[in-house]
Design a protein that fits this description.
The protein is mainly alpha-helical and 132 residues long. It is built from four helices and no strands. It has helices spanning 4-27, 62-69, 96-106, 118-129. It starts with a helix and ends with a helix.
């Protein structure tokens, strides 16, 4: 007997793996000089920025404050951070505070821990985008 459930899971796995491979090829090796590309939101709600990426609320752009003041979008396909959170100019390097905004939007700390330096935080963010 042919089990369609198993085939569908394998097809989904291959599709997701190909998608992640595409993103990683576009991103290249981790580094601040590479453009970053957003992924779909997978977790409900907004989260907290991980250690070392929190900004000073007095310096947070009004547009960013407005995004987080509203309701978080439901996870789903084509649900990516707005340009106020994830810049549309992919050629610029993201700051640690911007990575914090993105972390809050995704409700994912990317595995960042207290004591991680900027390089480690950026690598963990890159690993998140590559599904690692």
């Amino acid at each position: 007997m042919y089990d369609c459930t198993v085939v569908k899971r394998i097809d989904l796995f291959l599709c997701v793996s190909a998608h992640l491979l595409k993103w990683c090829q576009l991103l290249g090796s981790p580094g601040l000089d590479r453009p970053w590309l957003p992924l779909n939101k997978e977790r409900r709600h907004f989260g907290l920025a991980p250690p070392g990426t929190q900004g000073n609320n007095n310096e947070t752009p009004q547009a960013v404050l407005e995004v987080f003041a509203g309701p978080a979008p439901e996870p789903g396909e084509d649900v990516v951070p707005p340009p106020e959170i994830f810049p549309t100019d992919r050629s610029v390097s993201l700051t640690q505070v911007q990575i914090g905004y993105i972390s809050r939007w995704y409700n994912n700390d990317f595995g960042v821990r207290v004591g991680d330096n900027a390089e480690a935080r950026t690598k963990k963010f890159h690993d998140f985008l590559c599904g690692q």
